[in-house]
Design brief:
The protein is built from ten helices and nine strands. With about 290 residues, the chain is of the alpha/beta class. The longest helix has 27 residues. The structure holds adenosine monophosphate and manganese (II) ion (MN) (3 copies).
């Protein structure tokens, strides 16, 4: 049996830090030959309704989100870990409470990063960053875009490399819920939790095989094995861990429109994994 590879399960719209509207995202997905898209804006389901209203014939959308969580390193430092959740009840009180908290937290934190940059002489304003983020909460890519517009950097990537990375003097951390609590929130709301890009950036040394194993009894369902930030060795290691622990293996582009240099559908998830996620989720996919 050959498995279809027509699903990209990790995408962002302008409801978080992507640049596409839901309709633009779905048109791009159809053009890329995808038939299943995971909608995973950061810490919000605000784009679900508009996306549900624009699903073209032959396409289905797994509504979800990418949760900002933290997990302690051996030295006790809290490291940022992203957690994908699919097909959960977005009205669940645990999820609603968590996202209210994150929204308030992002408001002050985005302003702090901007103030740090302004104090150092970078020619941006909080007003302009707010215009760029629109109704969504401020994420670092919005600040990166303002820096690029002002000519302070040549690209979004350069803004992160030089000014916005986690160890930058201008950075301000987001207070996040723990990875284990995040998994619990998604499971309690009937959803399917999958750790996003476990070998990307700072999270890699923290998410050892032992740590991942310890999360399985809490309901962890899968690992995002194929991701643009993962090299061949990382993919092989994660595939081994997932196989040993009986976890689902997903593949996704982490598409952000013009805010990241990635192609929608450049990494994909096999159909049988998509079906397993749909079987476990409390909510039906949008569309076909
Ligand atoms: P925040 O949630 O505000 O801390 O911003 C994190 C977001 O920044 C991530 O979700 C990515 O979309 C984006 N990001 C992180 N590192 C980079 C990078 N090197 N280049 C472009 N975007 C990045
Ligand atoms: Mn992002
Ligand atoms: Mn992420
Ligand atoms: Mn993402």
């Amino acid at each position: 049996m050959t498995l279809g590879l027509t699903a990209d399960l990790h995408t962002h719209t302008a409801y978080s830090d992507g640049t596409d509207s839901p309709a633009q995202l779905l048109a791009a997905a159809a053009a890329a030959g995808l038939t299943t898209v995971g909608l995973t804006d950061h810490d919000t389901a605000a784009g679900w309704d508009e996306t549900a209203a624009h699903v073209p014939a032959g396409m289905r959308v797994l509504p979800g989100a990418e949760f900002s969580t933290k997990h302690p390193a051996p030295d006790g430092a809290l490291v940022s870990v992203h957690l994908l959740g699919y097909l959960f009840d977005r009205h669940d009180s645990g999820i609603v409470g968590e996202w209210d908290r994150v929204r308030d937290e992002r408001r002050g934190r985005g302003a702090r990063i901007v103030a740090n940059l302004v104090a150092a002489g970078y020619p941006i304003t909080l007003e302009r960053v707010r215009e760029i983020s629109g109704p969504s909460s401020i994420s670092r890519p919005h600040i990166a875009r303002a820096l690029m517009e002002a000519g302070a950097v040549g690209s979004i990537g350069e803004a992160f490399d030089d000014l916005l990375h986690d160890h930058s003097p201008y950075y301000a951390a987001l207070r996040s819920t723990s990875l284990r609590e995040g998994i619990g929130l998604i499971v309690d709301a009937g959803g399917v939790p999958v750790i996003a890009h476990p070998r990307a950036r700072a999270a890699a040394p923290v998410l050892t095989a032992q740590v991942i194993e310890s999360l399985v009894p809490h309901g962890l369902a899968g690992l995002e094995v194929r991701h643009p930030d993962h090299d061949a060795a990382a993919r092989a290691e994660l595939a081994d861990i997932a196989t040993n622990l009986g976890l689902l293996q997903t593949g996704s582009s982490d598409y952000h429109g013009d805010n990241k240099e990635l192609r929608l559908g450049q990494e994909r998830t096999p159909d049988d994994v998509v079906e397993a996620i749909i079987d476990r989720g409390a909510v039906a996919p949008f569309g076909a």
